[in-house]
Amino acid sequence: MIEIRFHGRGGQGAVTASRVLAIAAFLEGHHSQSIPMYGTERRGAPVTAFVRIGEKSRMVRSLVHEPDYVVILDPLLRNTVNVTEGLKPGATIIINSAAPPQEIEFMQQYKVATVDATKVALETIGRPITNTAILGAFAKATGEVKLESLIEAVKKEMSGRMADTNIKAVEKAYNSTIVGENKVVKELKKVAAAPANSRADWRTFRPVVDPAKCTGCQICWTYCPEHSINMVDKKSTIDYIYCKGCGVCAEECPTKAIAMVMESEKKEG
Ligand code: SF4
Ligand code: SF4
Protein backbone atom coordinates (compact mmCIF):
# COMPACT_ATOMS: atom_id res chain seq x y z
CA MET A 1 0.00 0.00 0.00
CA ILE A 2 1.23 3.49 -0.76
CA GLU A 3 -0.02 6.72 0.77
CA ILE A 4 0.21 10.19 -0.72
CA ARG A 5 -0.48 13.60 0.76
CA PHE A 6 -1.23 16.66 -1.36
CA HIS A 7 -0.65 20.21 -0.14
CA GLY A 8 -2.28 23.00 -2.11
CA ARG A 9 -4.27 26.17 -1.73
CA GLY A 10 -7.96 26.67 -2.28
CA GLY A 11 -8.44 27.11 -6.03
CA GLN A 12 -5.38 25.11 -7.11
CA GLY A 13 -7.27 21.84 -7.38
CA ALA A 14 -5.50 19.65 -4.82
CA VAL A 15 -8.70 17.73 -4.14
CA THR A 16 -9.28 17.19 -7.86
CA ALA A 17 -5.65 16.02 -8.18
CA SER A 18 -6.21 13.44 -5.47
CA ARG A 19 -9.38 12.25 -7.21
CA VAL A 20 -7.73 11.99 -10.63
CA LEU A 21 -4.81 10.05 -9.16
CA ALA A 22 -7.13 7.66 -7.35
CA ILE A 23 -9.06 7.08 -10.60
CA ALA A 24 -5.80 6.44 -12.50
CA ALA A 25 -4.74 3.85 -9.93
CA PHE A 26 -8.18 2.25 -10.09
CA LEU A 27 -7.91 2.04 -13.89
CA GLU A 28 -4.68 0.09 -13.38
CA GLY A 29 -6.53 -2.48 -11.28
CA HIS A 30 -5.72 -1.20 -7.78
CA HIS A 31 -8.02 -0.27 -4.96
CA SER A 32 -7.74 3.42 -4.18
CA GLN A 33 -9.14 6.12 -1.94
CA SER A 34 -9.25 9.89 -2.40
CA ILE A 35 -9.70 11.73 0.89
CA PRO A 36 -10.14 15.53 0.95
CA MET A 37 -9.53 17.55 4.10
CA TYR A 38 -10.75 21.12 3.97
CA GLY A 39 -9.65 23.86 6.33
CA THR A 40 -11.24 27.25 6.01
CA GLU A 41 -12.97 26.92 2.67
CA ARG A 42 -11.75 29.99 0.88
CA ARG A 43 -9.52 30.69 -2.07
CA GLY A 44 -5.83 30.69 -1.16
CA ALA A 45 -6.22 28.88 2.18
CA PRO A 46 -4.14 25.71 2.64
CA VAL A 47 -5.90 22.54 1.53
CA THR A 48 -4.78 18.97 2.16
CA ALA A 49 -5.92 15.86 0.36
CA PHE A 50 -4.84 12.25 0.56
CA VAL A 51 -4.70 9.23 -1.69
CA ARG A 52 -4.26 5.63 -0.67
CA ILE A 53 -3.48 2.96 -3.28
CA GLY A 54 -3.16 -0.75 -2.61
CA GLU A 55 -4.91 -4.03 -2.05
CA LYS A 56 -8.46 -4.03 -0.75
CA SER A 57 -7.55 -6.22 2.23
CA ARG A 58 -5.00 -3.66 3.49
CA MET A 59 -7.12 -0.54 3.06
CA VAL A 60 -7.89 1.46 6.18
CA ARG A 61 -10.26 4.38 6.44
CA SER A 62 -8.31 7.12 8.12
CA LEU A 63 -6.34 10.18 7.19
CA VAL A 64 -2.78 9.54 6.02
CA HIS A 65 -0.30 10.24 8.82
CA GLU A 66 2.94 8.73 7.44
CA PRO A 67 2.92 9.30 3.69
CA ASP A 68 5.28 7.71 1.19
CA TYR A 69 4.91 10.73 -1.07
CA VAL A 70 4.15 14.39 -0.54
CA VAL A 71 2.97 16.50 -3.46
CA ILE A 72 3.22 20.29 -3.07
CA LEU A 73 1.23 22.40 -5.52
CA ASP A 74 2.42 25.74 -4.21
CA PRO A 75 6.10 26.13 -3.23
CA LEU A 76 5.34 28.93 -0.76
CA LEU A 77 3.20 26.59 1.34
CA ARG A 78 6.33 25.16 2.87
CA ASN A 79 6.84 28.47 4.69
CA THR A 80 3.63 28.04 6.66
CA VAL A 81 2.72 24.34 6.55
CA ASN A 82 4.84 21.48 7.91
CA VAL A 83 4.83 19.64 4.61
CA THR A 84 7.27 16.94 5.77
CA GLU A 85 5.27 15.99 8.87
CA GLY A 86 5.22 12.21 9.28
CA LEU A 87 6.98 11.67 5.96
CA LYS A 88 8.77 8.31 5.91
CA PRO A 89 12.60 8.39 5.81
CA GLY A 90 13.84 8.47 2.23
CA ALA A 91 10.35 9.28 0.93
CA THR A 92 9.73 11.39 -2.16
CA ILE A 93 8.59 15.01 -2.38
CA ILE A 94 7.19 16.30 -5.66
CA ILE A 95 7.14 20.07 -5.61
CA ASN A 96 6.02 22.82 -7.94
CA SER A 97 9.23 24.79 -8.34
CA ALA A 98 11.32 26.27 -11.12
CA ALA A 99 14.45 25.36 -9.14
CA PRO A 100 16.28 22.05 -9.67
CA PRO A 101 15.95 19.42 -6.89
CA GLN A 102 19.43 20.08 -5.49
CA GLU A 103 18.33 23.62 -4.60
CA ILE A 104 15.34 22.41 -2.58
CA GLU A 105 16.03 22.26 1.15
CA PHE A 106 14.50 18.78 1.56
CA MET A 107 17.09 17.23 -0.74
CA GLN A 108 19.32 16.12 2.16
CA GLN A 109 16.63 13.91 3.64
CA TYR A 110 14.27 13.01 0.84
CA LYS A 111 14.14 12.25 -2.82
CA VAL A 112 12.96 15.44 -4.50
CA ALA A 113 11.42 15.99 -7.91
CA THR A 114 10.67 19.43 -9.24
CA VAL A 115 8.54 20.76 -12.06
CA ASP A 116 7.58 24.34 -12.88
CA ALA A 117 3.91 23.42 -12.70
CA THR A 118 2.76 27.06 -12.64
CA LYS A 119 4.52 27.75 -15.94
CA VAL A 120 3.18 24.51 -17.44
CA ALA A 121 -0.35 25.34 -16.30
CA LEU A 122 -0.20 28.87 -17.72
CA GLU A 123 1.11 27.57 -21.04
CA THR A 124 -1.49 24.82 -21.39
CA ILE A 125 -4.58 25.70 -19.37
CA GLY A 126 -4.03 29.45 -19.37
CA ARG A 127 -4.53 29.69 -15.61
CA PRO A 128 -2.22 28.90 -12.65
CA ILE A 129 -4.16 25.77 -11.70
CA THR A 130 -1.32 23.37 -11.06
CA ASN A 131 -3.12 20.16 -10.12
CA THR A 132 -2.91 18.18 -13.34
CA ALA A 133 0.62 19.37 -14.10
CA ILE A 134 1.83 18.17 -10.72
CA LEU A 135 0.23 14.78 -11.40
CA GLY A 136 2.36 14.46 -14.53
CA ALA A 137 5.38 15.09 -12.31
CA PHE A 138 4.14 12.52 -9.80
CA ALA A 139 3.90 9.85 -12.51
CA LYS A 140 7.39 10.65 -13.78
CA ALA A 141 9.05 10.82 -10.36
CA THR A 142 7.45 7.78 -8.78
CA GLY A 143 6.34 5.38 -11.52
CA GLU A 144 3.37 4.50 -9.30
CA VAL A 145 0.90 5.26 -12.10
CA LYS A 146 1.37 5.33 -15.85
CA LEU A 147 1.08 8.53 -17.86
CA GLU A 148 -1.62 6.88 -20.01
CA SER A 149 -3.69 6.07 -16.93
CA LEU A 150 -3.53 9.66 -15.75
CA ILE A 151 -4.70 10.85 -19.15
CA GLU A 152 -7.63 8.42 -19.04
CA ALA A 153 -8.46 9.59 -15.53
CA VAL A 154 -8.47 13.25 -16.64
CA LYS A 155 -10.90 12.30 -19.41
CA LYS A 156 -13.21 10.73 -16.83
CA GLU A 157 -13.05 13.72 -14.51
CA MET A 158 -13.22 16.50 -17.12
CA SER A 159 -14.64 17.02 -20.58
CA GLY A 160 -14.23 19.11 -23.72
CA ARG A 161 -11.58 21.77 -23.90
CA MET A 162 -10.90 21.51 -20.19
CA ALA A 163 -9.93 17.86 -20.58
CA ASP A 164 -7.76 18.62 -23.64
CA THR A 165 -5.80 21.40 -21.98
CA ASN A 166 -5.34 19.46 -18.75
CA ILE A 167 -4.05 16.44 -20.66
CA LYS A 168 -1.51 18.74 -22.29
CA ALA A 169 -0.53 19.95 -18.81
CA VAL A 170 -0.05 16.37 -17.58
CA GLU A 171 2.11 15.48 -20.60
CA LYS A 172 4.17 18.65 -20.57
CA ALA A 173 4.88 18.35 -16.85
CA TYR A 174 5.73 14.66 -17.21
CA ASN A 175 8.34 15.54 -19.82
CA SER A 176 9.84 18.46 -17.92
CA THR A 177 10.08 16.98 -14.41
CA ILE A 178 13.57 16.78 -12.91
CA VAL A 179 14.13 13.95 -10.46
CA GLY A 180 16.99 14.18 -7.97
CA GLU A 181 18.24 11.56 -5.56
CA ASN A 182 21.20 11.53 -3.26
CA LYS A 183 23.16 8.84 -1.46
CA VAL A 184 21.79 9.74 1.96
CA VAL A 185 18.26 9.09 0.75
CA LYS A 186 19.21 5.63 -0.54
CA GLU A 187 20.58 4.69 2.87
CA LEU A 188 17.49 6.05 4.65
CA LYS A 189 15.28 4.01 2.35
CA LYS A 190 17.16 0.84 3.23
CA VAL A 191 16.72 1.50 6.95
CA ALA A 192 13.03 2.33 6.44
CA ALA A 193 12.53 -0.91 4.54
CA ALA A 194 14.18 -3.01 7.23
CA PRO A 195 12.01 -4.76 9.85
CA ALA A 196 11.65 -3.16 13.27
CA ASN A 197 13.93 -5.74 14.93
CA SER A 198 16.68 -5.28 12.36
CA ARG A 199 20.23 -4.98 13.75
CA ALA A 200 21.55 -3.36 10.57
CA ASP A 201 22.03 0.07 12.11
CA TRP A 202 24.00 -1.36 15.06
CA ARG A 203 26.97 -2.16 12.85
CA THR A 204 30.16 -0.20 12.40
CA PHE A 205 31.76 -3.15 10.60
CA ARG A 206 30.09 -5.84 8.53
CA PRO A 207 31.35 -9.37 7.95
CA VAL A 208 32.12 -10.19 4.33
CA VAL A 209 32.65 -13.82 3.37
CA ASP A 210 35.19 -14.88 0.76
CA PRO A 211 33.47 -17.96 -0.75
CA ALA A 212 36.79 -19.18 -2.18
CA LYS A 213 38.19 -19.56 1.37
CA CYS A 214 35.01 -20.89 2.99
CA THR A 215 35.14 -24.66 3.55
CA GLY A 216 31.58 -24.87 4.84
CA CYS A 217 32.66 -26.07 8.29
CA GLN A 218 29.73 -24.18 9.94
CA ILE A 219 31.83 -22.92 12.85
CA CYS A 220 30.72 -19.33 12.20
CA TRP A 221 27.10 -20.52 11.98
CA THR A 222 27.51 -22.19 15.40
CA TYR A 223 29.01 -19.16 17.10
CA CYS A 224 26.92 -16.33 15.63
CA PRO A 225 24.94 -14.91 18.60
CA GLU A 226 22.24 -13.46 16.32
CA HIS A 227 21.68 -16.58 14.20
CA SER A 228 22.29 -14.37 11.22
CA ILE A 229 24.42 -16.82 9.24
CA ASN A 230 22.92 -19.27 6.80
CA MET A 231 24.72 -22.00 4.92
CA VAL A 232 23.84 -21.75 1.24
CA ASP A 233 25.41 -24.29 -1.11
CA LYS A 234 27.79 -25.19 1.74
CA LYS A 235 29.05 -21.61 1.97
CA SER A 236 28.51 -19.16 4.79
CA THR A 237 26.02 -16.40 3.90
CA ILE A 238 25.34 -13.41 6.14
CA ASP A 239 21.85 -12.06 6.76
CA TYR A 240 22.62 -8.35 6.98
CA ILE A 241 19.19 -7.48 8.34
CA TYR A 242 19.98 -9.22 11.64
CA CYS A 243 23.81 -9.23 11.74
CA LYS A 244 24.95 -6.77 14.43
CA GLY A 245 28.59 -6.71 13.32
CA CYS A 246 30.12 -8.20 16.47
CA GLY A 247 32.89 -9.95 14.52
CA VAL A 248 32.65 -13.28 16.39
CA CYS A 249 32.29 -15.14 13.10
CA ALA A 250 35.46 -13.59 11.70
CA GLU A 251 37.39 -14.43 14.87
CA GLU A 252 36.24 -18.04 14.92
CA CYS A 253 36.63 -18.84 11.23
CA PRO A 254 39.62 -21.22 10.94
CA THR A 255 40.38 -20.31 7.33
CA LYS A 256 40.05 -16.51 7.76
CA ALA A 257 37.30 -16.52 5.17
CA ILE A 258 35.46 -13.67 6.88
CA ALA A 259 36.77 -10.09 6.85
CA MET A 260 35.21 -7.28 8.88
CA VAL A 261 34.79 -4.28 6.59
CA MET A 262 33.81 -0.74 7.59
CA GLU A 263 30.15 -0.13 6.76
CA SER A 264 31.07 3.12 5.01
CA GLU A 265 33.48 1.23 2.72
CA LYS A 266 31.01 -1.33 1.47
CA LYS A 267 29.75 -1.17 -2.04
CA GLU A 268 26.18 0.07 -2.46
CA GLY A 269 23.46 -2.47 -2.95
S1 SF4 B 1 33.79 -20.60 9.80
FE1 SF4 B 1 34.76 -19.86 7.96
S2 SF4 B 1 35.11 -21.61 6.70
FE2 SF4 B 1 33.67 -22.23 8.28
S3 SF4 B 1 31.67 -21.90 7.29
FE3 SF4 B 1 32.15 -20.04 8.38
S4 SF4 B 1 33.15 -18.77 6.84
FE4 SF4 B 1 33.15 -20.83 6.05
S1 SF4 C 1 29.31 -10.28 12.82
FE1 SF4 C 1 28.39 -11.24 14.65
S2 SF4 C 1 26.20 -11.06 14.26
FE2 SF4 C 1 27.17 -10.72 12.31
S3 SF4 C 1 27.24 -12.69 11.34
FE3 SF4 C 1 29.18 -12.46 12.42
S4 SF4 C 1 28.84 -13.39 14.41
FE4 SF4 C 1 26.82 -13.06 13.49
Describe this structure in words.
The chain has 269 residues and is an alpha/beta fold. The chain has 2 domains: 2-187, Pyruvate-ferredoxin Oxidoreductase, domain 3 (3-Layer(aba) Sandwich); 195-265, Alpha-Beta Plaits (2-Layer Sandwich). Helix content is 31%, strand content 22%. A 7-stranded mixed sheet has the order 2-3-1-4-5-6-7. Strands 8-11 form a two-stranded antiparallel sheet. A hairpin with an 8-residue loop joins strand 2 (31-37) and strand 3. Helix 1 (14-27) crosses helix 4 (147-157) and helix 2 (117-124) runs antiparallel to helix 5. The chain is elongated, with a radius of gyration of 23 Å. The structure holds iron/sulfur cluster (2 copies). One iron/sulfur cluster binds at residues 207, 224, 226, 228-229, 238, 243-249.
Could you spell the SSE succession in H and E letters?
EHEEEEEHHHHEHEHEEHE
Q: Which small-molecule species are bound to the chains here?
A: iron/sulfur cluster
Structural class: alpha/beta
- What percentage of amino acids are in beta strands? 15-25%
Helix count equals 8
The top-level CATH class of the largest domain is: Alpha Beta
- Are there runs of 5+ residues with pLDDT below 50, and where? none
Instruction: Tell the overall outline.
Output: elongated
Number of domains: 2
CATH homologous superfamily grouping of the largest domain: Pyruvate-ferredoxin oxidoreductase, PFOR, domain III
Helix content class: 25-40%
User: Biggest sheet: strands, sense, closure?
Assistant: 7 strands, mixed
Instruction: Could you tell me the CATH topology label of the largest domain.
Output: Pyruvate-ferredoxin Oxidoreductase, domain 3
* Terminus-to-terminus distance: 24 Å
Cα Rg:
23 Å
Query: Quick one: how many beta strands?
Result: 11
